[in-house]
Amino acid sequence: MKRTIGVALICLMAACAQAQSWKKEKAVEQSKGFVENFAKAQKEAGELKQPIFALFTGSDWCPWCVKLHDEVLETKEFKKFAEDNLILFEADFPQTKDQPSDVKKQNKELSAKYGIQGFPTVLILDAEGKQLGQTGYQAGGGEAYVKSLKTMLEKAGVTVTDKPAAGKAVSAYDKMKASKATDKAAPAQEKK
Predict the structure, then answer these.
(1) Cα–chain-centroid distance for residue 158?
(2) What is the residue-wise DSSP string for the chain?
(3) Which candidate, 109, 44, 115, places its Cα nearest to that of 82?
(4) Is 157 left (phi over 0), alpha (psi -120 to 50) or beta?
(5) Per residue in 15-53, pLDDT tens?
(6) What structural domains and CATH numbers belong to the chain?
(7) What is the C-alpha to C-alpha distance for residues 30 and 45, in angstroms, rounded to an integer?
(8) How far is Cα 65 from Cα 51, in angstroms, rounded to an integer?
(9) Cβ-count burial of 144 within 10 angstroms (0-12 exposed, 13-18 middle, 19+ buried)?
(10) How far is residue 192's CA from residue 93's CA, in Å, rounded to a whole number?
(11) Angle CA(48)–CA(57)–CA(95) in degrees, nearest 5?
C-alpha cells in the first residue's frame, strides 16, 4: 500500500513538473524607456493597447531636441505618464553618434513615410502606425507637456490613466486640498 501511494505521488509530482514546463504564451512587457526598433514598438502598442510616442530627433546637434529631452522627457511627470500610457520610440538622426545601418535605414524610411520636416517632431501613432496627433517642443516643462498630450490623446479617442505611484500614500496636504476642493464645489452645486 505504501509503495502504491509512493509511486502515485511520484507520478503526480512528475505530471506537475511537466505541466509547469509547458510554455505558456508570455504577456508582452512594456520596454523601459525609448526603443529604437519600430516593429517592436508596434508589437508592444498592439498587445498593451497603448499609443506610440514616436520622437524624431537629432539628439546630438539639435538644440530644441536637447531642450525637449532635458525639460520634458527627463521629468518625473512625463516618465510616470509614459509608463502608464505610452510606448516610447525614438528615431534619432545624430551627426556624431554611431548607429547600426538597419536603424539608420528604418529611421530614414519612417521620416519619409510621415513627412518629417524638422526636429524635434513627436507623432502619436496607433499600433498600425496611423497618426493620431503631432507635436514637438513645448515650453512649460513636464507637467504642461503631459497635459497637452492628455488633451491630444483624448481628442483622438484614447483613454489615458492616472495611476497613483505604487505604495505611495496620500499625504495629509493632498487630503486637505481634496477636502477644500470638495467643500468649494458643494456650494456651487447647491446654487443650481
Answers:
(1) 13
(2) -HHHHHHHHHHHHHHHHHHHHSPPPPPPPPPSS-BS-HHHHHHHHHHHT--EEEEEE-TTT-HHHHHHIIIIITSHHHHHHHHHH-EEEEEE--SSS---HHHHHHHHHHHHHHT--SSSEEEEE-TT--EEEEE---SSHHHHHHHHHHHHHHHTT-----PPPTTPPPPHHHHHHHHHHHHHHHHHHHH-
(3) 44
(4) left
(5) 555 544 433 344 556 678 999 999 999 999 999 999 999
(6) 29-160 (3.40.30.10)
(7) 9
(8) 21
(9) middle
(10) 56
(11) 135
Condensed to tens digits (0 to 9), the pLDDT of residues 150-175 reads 999 999 999 988 766 544 444 455 55
C-alpha cell at 168: 505611495
Which is higher by pLDDT, 86 or 3? 86
Hey, which residues does 135 pair with through a beta bridge? 122
**How much is the pTM?**
0.72
